[in-house]
Amino acid sequence: MNTRHLTLAAVAALALSWGLLPDFTLTLLSYIALYALVAAGLVMLTGVGGMTSFGQAAFVGMGAYATAWVCTSPLAAQYLPAALAGSAWLPWVGLALGLATTFALAWMLGAITLRLSGHYLPLGTLAWGLSLYYLFGNIEGLGGFTGLSGLPPLVLGGFSLATPMRLGPLIWGVLLLALWALHNLLDSREGRAIRALKGGRVMAESMGIDTAHYRIKLFVLAALLAAISGWLYAHLQRFVNPTPFNINIGIEYLFMAVVGGAGHLWGAVLGAALITLLKEQLQDILPRLLGTSGNFEIVVFGLLMLLVLQRFADGLWPRLAGWTQRWVRPANAASAGTPSARTPAVPLATRALPPAGQVVLQASHVSKRFGGLVANNDIHMNVKAGEVHALIGPNGAGKSTFFNMISGVDDPSSGEVLLAGKPMQGQPSRHFAALGMGRTFQHVRLLGQRSVLENVALGAHRRGRSGWLACMLRLDRAEEAALMLEARRQLERCGLAALADQPAASLALGQQRIIEIARALAGQPSVLLLDEPAAGLRHLEKQALATLLGQLRAEGLGILVVEHDMEFVMKLADRITVLEFGAVIAEGTPAQVQANPRVLEAYLGGADDFGGMAA
Q1: Which of 78, 259, 432, 547 could form a disulfide with 437 if both were Cys (CB 3.0 to 4.6 A apart)?
Q2: 150 CB contacts (<8 Å, ≥6 apart)?
Q3: 329 by DSSP, 3-state: which?
Q4: What CA–CA distance (Å, rounded) separates 167 from 30?
Q5: Rounded to whole angstroms, how far apart are CA atoms 495 and 513?
Q6: Spatial distance between the Cα atoms of 524 and 437, rounded to a whole number of angstroms
Q7: Which residue ranges in the chain fall short of pLDDT 70?
Q8: Phi, psi of 282 (to 5 degrees)
Q9: Residues in CB range of 531: below 8 A, 6 or more apart
Q10: pLDDT at residue 333, rounded to an integer
Q11: Distance between CA 311 and CA 259 in Å, rounded?
């Protein structure tokens, strides 16, 4: 049995038993599904995207109050067509209004709040979560803290969903549909971009991902899921007041996602079920043991949550999956990040490389100052198609600062960087990627828990076009097959095809560096920037890397290598630029650099350090 079979069996069991369960249990199950819908959005936002929010309860309130206002307010009736007055369509108008207002508010709040980092981001979500809660309670048109009552039930096809027995299947259907769509999104080009957000801006932007745009889109997605939950909640309760949307409930939603497993969609369901049932039992048991004079359940609940978080740092779902893996195997499709074998894989379109000898990357009079410190001073350098250009220098020479300026991570204080003949002043890294730049990092940056294949496919992000909706509906399968075909081709090219399905974090450092090169090649660059690619490689691995770079050079790729391994550099490079104290002290062929007295004295400390390197 695989996970897909188990999921279908669980859904079938719930459907078959639904009519046999008591009303209290049906109500409880409906609440679990409503909470899980919000928690699933937080799994995407926090567990996958790396952004913490304590304010999701406010977005639940937006969905609930929008439909309550449309259905009960005399003022709303003035703006609606007379044919809608008292009709069964009013709740659906409320849903449209709730989604529209939530979208606008979430986009605005996201544009402001997501600029924050570290602990300031969750503090910002606390602030607007509290603000919206008190806003709900202080607007007379929304009933103040008393709330709005008399909401009509939902009606589908003339069938009234006035009880949990009838509305519950719709709530669970919406939850399952959302989980299916989110799973499809994560198993796609756009999903890999979302996962890259957690690894930091520099890596994601270098792959061509607009991180600010993706963060806001993810924030809005989580808010819309919360609004749908609020809309369903309002018509389940038939009454709305601010209490269920306060900041305490927002923290509980986050607990549900974290306790269940913040990186796992089904962890949202597990966390919602566990916390809902636990709170229910504590509210019954503790008053009998300790009396009714205090809210002891909050204290005990908090202590139990601390215990769970301490013992199961990654949540309960991964541990549960580990316990059952002997009997339940992962589903073949999607879970491994590979499209179905039935999907035809057509190679991606390619672009011609510049002719050999053409300058593809040029730095002119580039300087970088940090206050009174001059990190780089008037540097001239160019990289040509069909050559390997090495940048060397002692620690503190300014190599990393210069590397950041020519890759779009930082802007020069003066001077100009040209890529493919175009000035790049003020352009982010993703624009460098769009013009044909690929790069690796001094400290390896991979999605450690994802497969090697998925990591390499991330490099081809800009070569795909499918959006979020197409990915959610699995309309991107042909494009996804092409991206995976390209990723496998680059892995074969780099000699790592046998490791395609292994988690990237399980590989040795040297292999991870080769994965980064394969990832860069998947973007079909015309110029490749390698930051210490030989670090951590054994002798035979260095030989294999030199052979690969030689092949890329022969194909017409321009390659810039920053490296400390002098033997590797001298045998591979066509030209070398030497930095010291942020300035160029020598440039030329390996033989010219080895013979330069200033290099020997200032950088290498003597001619003996070159022994045998030119062989």
Answers
A1: 432
A2: 71, 72, 238, 239
A3: strand
A4: 8
A5: 12
A6: 8
A7: 82-83, 85-86, 292-295, 331-344, 602-615
A8: -65, -35
A9: 400, 403, 439, 440, 441, 442, 562
A10: 41
A11: 10
H or E segment at 218?
Answer: helix 211-237
Distance CA 66, CA 61 (A): 8
The span from the CA of 487 to the CA of 515, in Å, is 10
Q: Which residue has the tokens 């919406």?
A: 174
Q: How far apart are CA 322 and CA 22, in angstroms?
A: 33
Q: Which amino acid is at 375?
A: A
| CA–CA distance, 93 with 79 (Å, rounded to integer) | 12
Three-class HEC string of 400-432: HHHHHHHCCCCCCCEEEEEECCEECCCCCHHHH
* Three-state SS annotation for 238-270: CEECCHHHCHHHHHHHHHHHHHHHCCCHHHHHH
Q: Which two tokens stand for residue 62?
A: 């937006």
**How would you classify the pairing of strands 359-370 and 373-384?**
antiparallel
pTM (two decimals): 0.90
Residue matched to tokens 């991180």:
211
User: Considering Cα of 116, then 117, then 123, then 129, what sign does the dihedral take?
Assistant: positive
Q: How is residue 66 written in tokens?
A: 């929008």
Beta bridge partner(s), residue 422: 419
How many Å apart are CA 401 and CA 395, to the nearest integer?
12
Report the DSSP pairing between strands 527-531 and 437-439.
Answer: parallel
pLDDT tens for each residue of 470-505: 999 999 999 999 999 999 999 999 989 999 999 999
Kindly tell me the burial class for residue 188, based on how many C-beta atoms sit within 10 Å of its own C-beta (0-12, 13-18, 19 or more). Answer: buried
What pLDDT score was predicted for residue 167? 95
- To 5 degrees, how large is the angle CA 560–CA 562–CA 563? 130
Q: List the structure tokens of 548.
A: 């690969």
* Nearest Cα to Cα of residue 518 among 555, 549, 562, 540: 549
pLDDT for residue 119: 80
Q: Which residues pair with 149 in a beta bridge?
A: 239
Query: Could you identify the residue written with the tokens 């779902």?
Result: 317
Residue with tokens 């022969």: 554
Tell me if 47 sits within 8 A of 257, measured CB to CB: yes
3-state secondary structure of 15: helix
Residue 111, classed as helix, strand or coil, is helix
Q: CA 215: distance to chain centroid?
A: 8
Instruction: State the DSSP H helix or E strand holding residue 58, giving kind and residue range, or none if neither.
Output: helix 56-72
